[in-house]
Amino acid sequence: MKEKLLHLIEQEDKKNPFTDEELAKRLYMNRSEVTQLRQAANIADSRERRKPLLIKEIKAILTASPGISERMLTTEINNRGFAVSRYSISKILSEMAQEGTLPGAPSKPDAAGKNPAAKEKGMPREQGPVSGREEETRQGFVFQGVDPFSAMIGWDKSLRVKVEQAKAAVLYPPHGLHTLIVGMTGVGKSEMAEAMYKYALQVKKLKAQQFPFVVFNCADYAENPQLLLAQLFGYKKGAFTGADTDRDGLVAKADGGILFLDEVHRLPPDGQEILFQLIDKGKYRRLGETSSTLSAHVMIIAATTEDIETSLLGTFRRRIPMIIELPPLAGRPAEERFEIIKMFFRKEAARIHNRITVSYNALKALLVYECLGNIGQLRSDIQVACARGFLTYMAEMQIKGNQEDAGIYVDLGALPSHVAKGMINASWNRMEIEQFITGDLVFYPYQAAGDGVSLENNNNNTGGDNLYNLPAEIYRNIEENYQKLQELGFSNAVINKLIGDDLEIKVKNIIKQVQKNKNKYIKDDLKLIVGPKIVELVEEMIKIAESGLGELDETLFYCLATHLNASVERIKSGKAITNPHLEKVKEDYAKEFKLATEMASLTHYYLGIELPEEEIGFIAMYLRTLSKKEVHPQDTIGLIVISHGHVAEGMAAVANRLLGVNLVKTVEMTLDEKPEAALKRTLEKVRQVNRQKGVLLLVDMGSPLGFGQQITQMTGIRTRTVGRVDTVMVIEAVRKVLLPDADLDYVADSLIKEKSSEWGTAQEIANLSSFGPKESAIISLCLTGDGTAKLLQRKIADRIKEINPEVKIVTLGILDENDILEQIEKIRRNMHILAIVGTVNPKHPDLPFISSAEILKGAGMAKLIRLVNDHLALWKGGASFFKHGDSLFRKDLILVNAQAKDKNEALHIITDLLVKRGYVTAHYLQGVLEREKLASTFVGNELAIPHGYSEEIIVPVIGVLVLKEPVDWGEGEKVSLVFLLALNEDAQSAFRRVYKIIKNTEIAKAIKKAHDAEEVLRILTKYKDGEAVTND
Questions:
Q1: Dist. CA 710–CA 320, nearest whole Å
Q2: Could you tell me if 621 and 644 lie in one domain?
Q3: Which of 178, 844, 871, 947 is the catalytic position?
Q4: 229-264 residue pLDDT tens
C-alpha cells in the first residue's frame, strides 16, 4: 500500500496535491489510515507539498507587481493553476515576511489601516468600498480599529449576548475560559471560534506566530483511539509500529494559544477523559511516555451539533464553564438573513470576477424558504444558483459575443428546486419583505465581500459549518468543461445538460456528507430504544433492499427500525395487525413486495418470529416511498405537537432524530399563557407547515384540543386533532405520514384507535374513542333537505350499498330553523359521519365535503367510495372493497351479439357504452387507443383486455363485449370476447381474481354461447377465482 501511495503522490498535480481524503478515496482506505501511512512514510501533507512551488510563484508575481493587493495576488495565483484561498496566501506572506524572504515587504499598517510604504511607492490600491471586516493579516497582526466579531452578521443585534459571552471567555485571566459552542449544522460555530481567536490576537496585541490557533476535527479519529491520542498529544519513539521518532501533537502546537475541537461529540468517552488532566492542571503525556509529563497552557474551544446533556460526559461538561448556544437561521431576524444573502452574493461575484444580477423573486425565495442546513446550506444554495447562472452566461456569450456582456443573471429558475418551492409553501409577510427587497439587486466583483480571515484546519479537514460549501474551483471547472465539450462538437443544449447534471451530483454529495456524519450517532441512540438485535436485523434488511433498488435514503433505516419494534410488540401481545392497502401494494408495488418478503424472512433468524403478510406490505410501502428521488415530498401532511410546558420540543426532537427527518414542528404553552395567544401561535405554525394535505395536531390536554376546529374555521385548512400525545405517538405519526398516499383522516384515525386501546373511551382523544362501534353515515345537504339532497341520497345509496349496506344516508336542509353545524354535531354524537355531500358547503372543520357537481360527474362518487372503503378497512380488519371482483361486472355494461367490422369499431362500441353510463370520461377512449398502439391486448382464446388511463375513470368497472363474429386484433389474431378494464387504484386489488375468471377457457366458452347480458352476468358471478362455486 505504501508503494501505491508513493506512486499517487508522484503523479499528482504539484500545484494542487491530493489531500488525505482524496488519497483515501483512490486507495479505498479510511482517511485516518492514510494519514497514519503518510506520516509513517515521512511524507508532508498537501499544503506542505505545495508550499515551495507556491512561494516561487508568489515571489515572481510580487517582483513583477510590487504593489499588488492580497486579493489580486490570490486571483493571479489561482489563474496560474492553483486552487488556494486568500487566507492561505495571507499565511504564507506572513511567514515570508517573518523569514525576511518577502520581496518589497510592506510595513505594518498605521492606525488608519493604510500602508504608508504603499503610499510612498505609489502602489495602486483596490477600488471600491472597503469593509471594516477586511483585516490586514500579512504580518500576522489584526487591525486594531475593527472588532473581529463584526465579521459575523448580527454581532451587535441578535448575536450580541453570544458575542459578549465569547469576549468574556477570551478575556478571563490567565488563559481564558474553556468554551463550548453549541448549535445546529451551519449556524456559524467555526466562524465564532475564529472570531474569538482574532479578538484574542487584538486584545493581547500578539502576532499569529505568538498565539497559535489549532483546529482538530474529532470525527476523523473517533474510531481509532490510539491515533487520536497520537494526533492530540504526540508520541514517543517506539510507541507503536512506525513511530520512528519523537513527535509533538496538536496540544504542543497550540501551547500558549487556542485548541479548537470541532465535532467534540464524536470523541468517545475515553477520548473526553484524556483531556481532563490537560484542562485541570495544564499537564499531559505523549503516547508511549510513562514517567515525565509536559506542560501546555491552552484555551480549549469545542463545538458540537448535539445535545450536550446526552452526547458528552457530565464530568467533561462541568470542566467547560462557558456555553455559547448559537441560534438557527430560522431564529434570526429577516433583516440579518437578507444581509447574509447579500454577503454570499458579493463573495460569488468576487470569485467569478463578474457582476451578478439577482431577481426580486429569487431574493424573496432565498429570504423565506425553510433552510434546514442554516447559514451553511444558504451559502451552498446561493453557490448552486450562481453556478447555474454562470452556465447560462457561458452559453449566451457564445451566441452574443463580448459586445453584450450583461454579466450573470440569477432568477427563480436558477435556484435549487427546494428553494423555489419554499417560496410557495412558506408563510411570509409581504410588507416585511418589501422593507428589504424593492427590486433586482446587482453585485459587482470589486465590492467588499466581507469575508475577513478564513482560518483553515491543521489537518485538511472541514468542520460541520463548512460541509455545505461548494469547491472554490467550481466556476473554473464549468468554464473548462464547457470549452472541452464545445471542441468535441456538442450543442449548447447538450453541454448545459451534461454540466448541469454534474453540478447536481456535486450538490447531492455535499448533502450526503452532511447526513453521513449524523447517521452513525443516531444509530447508537436507536440501539438503546429498539435494541441491538432489531438494529442488526434492519442493517441486513437494507442490504437486501439496496441489492434490488440501489442506494436508498437513510430515513428507511430509522422508519424500519421503529416500525418493526412496534410490530414485534403487537405480535408478542397477540394484537391484530391491519394493513388496508395490502392488496394494492401486492399489485402496484410487486417489485418492492418481493424484496420485502425476502427481507421479512430474516426476522425468524434474528427475532425468532414470523412477520405476517400485512407487515410485509408495510415494509414494501416504505421501500416504495424511500426509493423515490424526492424522499420527503413537499406535500406531506403537516405535523405539530402542542404541549403545556417544555415537553413538545423533546418529543419532536426524538421523532425527527430517530426517523432522520425534520417534519415535526412544535408549540409549547407556558402554564400561565392565555389560550388566545397560544391559538395565534398555533395558527401561524399551521400556515407554515400546510402543504395542501392538511395538518395533524398532536395535543397533550386542555384548550389546545379545540384549536384545530377553530383554525379550520378561520383558514379553511383541514386539521385533525389527537389528544394524550406522547413520544411513541409522535414517532408513529411521522412513520405514517411518510407512507405512500398518506391521508390525514387515515393517519389520525389509526392513531386514535391505537390510543383508544390503551385508554378505553377517553373523550379527550379527539372525541373519537367510540368511533368504531357507531353507525356510519353520509350527510346529503341542500337548501331545503328535500330536492337535491333526496336526489343525491338515491344516487349515493345505490352505489354505497354494494360496498357497505350499513352506511346510512341522512338528508339535511340548510334553511331549517336549527343551525346546520349544530344539526351535524347532534348526528355526530350518535353516528360516525364519513362525509358531507350537497349543493352548499357548511364548512365543517373536521368533515370532508364533496359537492353535488362532483358526485354527478363521477369523480366525487369515486372519492366517496374511497372514504367508505378506508373506513371499512380501518375498523373491520381490512375487509376488501371488492370481495370477489363480481361487483365490477354490471348488467348494463354487457353487450351480447354485437357487430363490429374491425378492432377500432369494437373498442368504440364498448368504450362509448361506459362513457354513456357515466363510468369513464369522454377522454377514456383516447387512452384505450394509445395503449393498444403501444402493445396488443390480445391474451389468447379469442380474448382481449384493452384498458385506458386511470385518471379518466370515474367509477371502476369492467365492460363486456361479446361479438357475433370475431374481428382481426392484429398479426392475424382473432377476437370475439372483449373485457374493457376500467380499473383505477381502488379496484387494482380485485384484478388478479378477475383475471383468473376471464382467462378460464370454460368460462369464456360459456360466455360466447350466452343469449343475453343477464346470462353473461350469471356466468361471471357463478365463479370464484376462476373455479365454479358449488353448493356442497
A1: 47
A2: no
A3: 947
A4: 788 888 888 877 777 888 888 999 999 999 999 988
Q: Which three cell numbers stand for residue 822?
A: 349544530
Number of residues assigned to the chain: 1032
Dihedral-angle region of residue 368 (phi above 0 means left; psi in -120 to 50 means alpha; beta otherwise): alpha
The letter for the amino acid at 93 is L
Angle at CA of residue 964, ends 962 and 965, nearest 5°: 115
What is the model's pTM? Answer: 0.44
Question: What's the burial of 976, exposed, middle or buried (CB within 10 Å: 0-12/13-18/19+)?
Answer: buried
Does residue 453 lie within any of the structural domains?
Answer: no
Q: What burial class does residue 63 get, using C-beta atoms within 10 Å of its C-beta: 0-12 exposed, 13-18 middle, 19+ buried?
A: exposed
Same domain, yes or no, for 891 and 870? no
User: Which residue's entry shows cell 435514503?
Assistant: 553
- How many contiguous H segments (helices) and E segments (strands) does the chain have? 42, 27
State how many domains the chain has: 7
Nearest to 430 by CA among 368, 499, 355, 519: 368
Buried b (16+ CB within 10 A) or exposed e, 282-310: eebbbbbbeeeebebebbbbbbbbbebee
Q: How far apart are CA 389 and CA 384, in angstroms?
A: 9
Q: Average pLDDT in the 285-291 region?
A: 80
Please give the full DSSP string across 713-730, using - where no structure is assigned: HHH---EEEE-S--HHHH
The residue type found at 943 is L
Model confidence at 140: pLDDT above 70: no
Hey, what's the cell of 479? Answer: 468554464
What does the alpha-carbon distance between residue 482 and residue 503 come to, in Å, rounded to a whole number?
13
Question: Whose CA is closest to 453, among 203, 250, 213, 96?
Answer: 213
pLDDT tens per residue, range 293-320:
888 999 999 999 888 877 788 888 888 9
* Residue (of 743, 732, 673) closest to 704 by Cα position: 673
Mean pLDDT of 781-805: 72
Domain identity same for 249 and 155? yes
Q: What does the DSSP 8-state code read for residue 287?
A: B
Looking at the structure, do residues 667 and 704 belong to the same domain, yes or no? yes
Tell me, letter by letter, the H, E, C secondary structure of 396-428. Answer: HHHHHCHHHCCCEEECHHHCCHHHHHHHHHCCC
Query: Distance between CA 937 and CA 929 in Å, rounded?
Result: 11
Percent of the chain, pLDDT > 90? 13
CATH of the domain at 720: 3.40.50.510
| Order of strands across the sheet that contains 974-982 | 889-898, 957-968, 974-982, 943-944, 938-940
The identity of residue 558, as a single letter, is Y
**Whole-angstrom Cα distance, residue 251 to residue 283?**
10
* Amino acid (1-letter code) at residue 708: G
Check residue 275 and report its DSSP letter: T
Q: Is residue 418 flagged as an active site residue?
A: no
Nearest CA-CA partner of 298 in 205, 176, 189: 176
Q: Cβ distance 772 to 875 under 8 Å?
A: yes
Report percent pLDDT > 70 for the chain. 73
Strand, helix or coil for residue 962: strand
Residue 7 near residue 14, CB atoms below 8 Å: no
Q: Same domain for 896 and 983?
A: yes
- Full domain range(s) for residue 975: 886-1028
Residue 700: closest CA among 764, 657, 769, 745: 764
Residue 47 is assigned to a structural domain of this protein: yes
Helix (H, G, I), strand (E, B) or coil at 663: coil
CA 159 from centroid of its chain's CA atoms: 28
- Rounded to whole angstroms, what are the CA distances from 410 to 82, 338, 361, 397? 28, 16, 10, 16
Instruction: Give the pLDDT confidence score for residue 141 in this predicted structure.
Output: 42
Going by pLDDT thresholds of 50, 70 and 90, the confidence category of residue 938 is confident
User: Which grid coordinates are listed for 518?
Assistant: 449524523
740 and 674 housed in the same domain: yes
502 and 366 belong to one structural domain: yes
Whether the CB-CB separation of 637 and 747 falls below 8 Å is answered with yes
Residues 7 and 82 in one domain: yes
